[in-house]
Specification:
single chain, alpha+beta, Arc Repressor Mutant, subunit A, three-stranded antiparallel beta sheet, two-stranded antiparallel sheet, 5 helices, globular, disordered C terminus
């Protein structure tokens, strides 16, 4: 039997403004949040960014460690989703403000999914 290591996700009370803002300080990570803002869970293989897969994995880990996303593993595949409800409960209005400005300034627009018609 293979043991799968489960990713650790910070609880609501562990999420800090400094960690969330630090995670959002990179355009790739803002782009990932924009993609995930549609509420759909995405497989890591669906995500497209102009970086190596290992770098994309790093960005996804930073988002998870800050509490912005939730990751789950199913067999050999990993899936990620935005923790919108948790973020809104901990930091009311922050996520929508970031998304609005990111869209207006086109921050992270170079990040998408395999089917770009679903891009935010």
């Amino acid at each position: 039997m293979v043991t799968v290591k489960q990713a650790r996700h910070p609880g609501l009370e562990e999420m800090t403004l400094v960690a969330v803002m630090g995670a959002l300080s990179d355009p790739i990570r803002v782009g990932l949040v924009r993609v995930l803002a549609d509420g759909r869970e995405r497989g890591w293989g669906e995500l497209r960014a102009p970086v190596a897969k290992s770098t994309l994995s790093h960005h996804l880990r930073v988002l998870r460690d800050a509490g912005l996303t939730r990751t789950r593993q199913e067999g050999t595949r990993c899936f990620v989703e935005l923790r919108r409800e948790d973020l809104n409960a901990r930091f009311p209005g922050l996520l929508e403000a970031v998304l609005e400005v990111a869209r207006g300034d086109d921050v992270g627009a170079h990040v998408g999914v395999t089917d770009d018609s679903n891009r935010t």
